[in-house]
Design goal:
With about 400 residues, the protein is mainly alpha-helical. It is built from 21 helices and 4 strands.
Length: about 400
């Protein structure tokens, strides 16, 4: 008889992590550090500096501010902003142990998240609901959990899963950042309780009153297996906008390279992209990051979808171009989603987007992103160089801690 789902996942998490996964984790660490660096001057950064003590804890407020955090397509969530603070949160841990912790955190968060359905994504913020699983696995790895301890920690973290999308209807709130902080602290505390003897309901996922019954109409299988690690299936985000706007940005950039991006601009994409990003008249910076119309106008204006392209000044300047952008659903593109995030702009269709595993970006792109976001966050170029060195080349975990402390005061 097959045992509880979390028991099997706990066994997977206890496997050795290889050098290849650690190297991939280093890229995601640098990507997350870039997002933190770019957001350090934000309102969320000031909040984190006021409330939290350690650098890793303050950084929980920053990883998703710029909408450039890494993403898993089928789970429809962003692992980096949750997993990295948890993986860095034990000061005594060596960098190798922290990289292993991150790999396991990505695995747990994505595995459960990919089993949720469209009903869940329509109502719940998956990075929040699944984040506790990622943080519990990461911190459990730092502690040195056995398979059964992972399973119990995931069960207790999942038992209080939550995070509603309604924040999207309240402009200017910092609820999305609070979701990340809550997921990190909850998952971390769940693992700590197991370490000191607590246990959890191992059928938490599939039970009659469990997570699937409460949050989904139909459940799928947990993602992944024992032949590999899910961190390799995570996409990097090259543009400073909601992931649902990236396919349109990517297609518009390709048209611009070909000299064929001319008005009017007709965008056809999948249904969720319209649900989240059909905003013809953005007002705030966050509105602009969630606006297909603004995203295409940015490219039409000769810009490259960097943070400065979504400011109030850019919103005002690009109003005439936005007015020439129309958006609509293409059922064929919707049918391929979420396995493929695609869009068509003025007849040019891209099935996959830059940064996806099918169209990967190289190390040099993540390094360039680090430099770009460091500048945006007011850091000198040598700080970006330091982050690249510490994330990709060195094994000095304490130096990463010190760098975060210096960045967020």
């Amino acid at each position: 008889m097959t045992g509880p789902l979390l028991t099997g996942l706990g066994t997977r998490l206890a496997r050795p992590v290889t050098k290849g996964e650690r190297q991939r984790a280093r890229l995601h660490l640098l990507d997350w550090l870039a997002c933190v660096a770019g957001a350090r001057g934000s309102e969320a950064g000031a909040l984190g500096a006021s409330i939290a003590l350690a650098g890793w804890e303050r950084a929980t407020y920053l990883g998703n501010v710029l909408e450039m955090d890494d993403v898993h397509r089928t789970a429809l969530l962003h692992p980096g902003p949750v997993v990295w603070p948890a993986a860095l949160s034990m000061a005594s841990a060596r960098l190798e142990a922290r990289l292993d912790a991150a790999v396991r955190g990505y695995e747990a968060m994505i595995a459960v998240g990919a089993a949720m359905d469209a009903h869940h994504y329509a109502r719940w913020h998956p990075t929040a609901t699944m984040g506790g699983f990622g943080a519990a696995a990461a911190f459990g790895s730092l502690i040195g959990f056995a398979p059964v301890e992972y399973a119990h920690a995931l069960a207790n973290a999942g038992s209080v899963a939550g995070g509603l999308w309604h924040m999207r209807h309240a402009p200017g709130v910092l609820t999305k950042q609070w979701h990340i902080y809550h997921a990190v602290r909850t998952g971390r505390d769940a693992a700590l309780h197991i370490h000191y003897g607590a246990t959890g309901p191992l059928e938490l996922l599939e039970g009659a009153q469990g997570l699937f019954a409460a949050m989904a109409q139909s459940r799928g299988a947990l993602a992944g297996d024992e032949t590999g690690w899910l961190i390799h299936a995570v996409s990097f985000k090259p543009f400073a906008a909601c992931r649902h706007a990236h396919p349109a940005i990517d297609a518009a950039l390709e048209l611009r390279r070909q000299g064929r991006l001319v008005a009017p601009y007709v965008v056809e994409t999948y249904a969720d992209a319209l649900t989240f990003c059909n905003r013809p008249d953005p007002v705030t910076e966050l509105d602009a990051k969630f606006s297909l119309q603004h995203a295409v106008a940015v490219v039409a204006d000769g810009r490259n979808a960097e943070p400065e392209d979504f400011t109030p000044e850019a919103i005002a300047a690009l109003a005439p171009l936005r007015a020439q952008v129309s958006v609509a659903e293409d059922p064929a593109i919707t049918a391929r989603y979420p396995a493929h995030f695609g869009a068509r702009v003025n007849g040019l269709e891209l099935v996959d987007t830059l940064g996806d595993p099918e169209r990967p970006v190289g190390e040099e792109h993540i390094i360039a992103k680090m430099h770009s976001l460091a500048r945006w966050g007011g850091l000198p170029s040598d700080e970006a160089d330091r982050a690249v060195r510490l994330a990709l080349e060195n094994d000095d975990a304490a130096a990463i801690d010190a760098m975060l402390e210096a960045w967020i005061r």
